[in-house]
Amino acid sequence: MRPLYLKLLSMTSLILIFMVSLAAATEEITIISKDQLKEKLGQEDVAIIDVRATNDWDSSQFKIQGAQRQLPLETKEWMNTYPKDETIILYCA
Description:
Elements: H1 4-23, H2 34-40, E1 46-50, H3 54-59, E2 68-69, H4 75-78, E3 87-91
Parallel strand pairs: 1-2, 1-3
């Protein structure tokens, strides 16, 4: 198991990669709290996407119910499969 600081560094790096990757394709990127996420769970116009690295995802005992798993390094391949008017929430923690 990796130390906590390495996990935090990995998560931060992934978030930055996604923000840069998606910035050209989106009008707005917002960071939300876990309480704000809870409010969005189950809404039809919201896609929750788990973009953790494969090893982190495989070893995790915690996953958001209903979240879709997508590979973080294949963002360009899957990003356009989601409707443009849908709210897309990425998480990697």
